[in-house]
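Reply to dn_fold:

You asked what the input looked like. This is it:
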Amino acid sequence: MPDGAVVIPCLEPGQLTAKRKSCIHEPQAQVIPTRDGIPWLGFVVYPDFRRLKRRNAVKFSRRLRRNLDLYEAGGISYAELDASVSGWINHVRYADTWGLRSHLFSQNPMPPTPPPTSRSTIRQQPIYENDILLKQ
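and this is what came back:
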C-alpha cells in the first residue's frame, strides 16, 4: 500500500454497516493518496493544509454581491448582511483562506457599521397600592 493512503473498509455494495446503518458506495469508497487531497465538508484536506472548494468561494462571492446590493437598496438590514458574512468567515477560517478573504473583501468592501440606534427609554410606570400613588 502506498505511503499516506487512506484505507476505507470494503463491504459489498449496498451492505449495511452494523453500527451506523449506512451504505458504503463503491465510487466514493476508493483508496487514494492523501497528497491528492480528500474532499470533506466543503474543504479539500491535504496532509499539511486545507483548502476551500472553489465552488464554495464562487457561491459566496455571488451571494455577497447580491446581499450588498440588497443592503444598499434597503432590502435587508445591516444585521442580516453582517450575519451572512460572519457565518461564512467562521466556516472558512478552518482552511488556509486569508488571501481569499482579503481578495473578496477588497473587491466587495463592506459598508461601515451604522451607528447604534438609541434605545427607547423605558418609562417607569407609577407604583400604586390600593389605588394610592406611592412616591418613587
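The chain has three helices and five strands.
Hope that clears it up.
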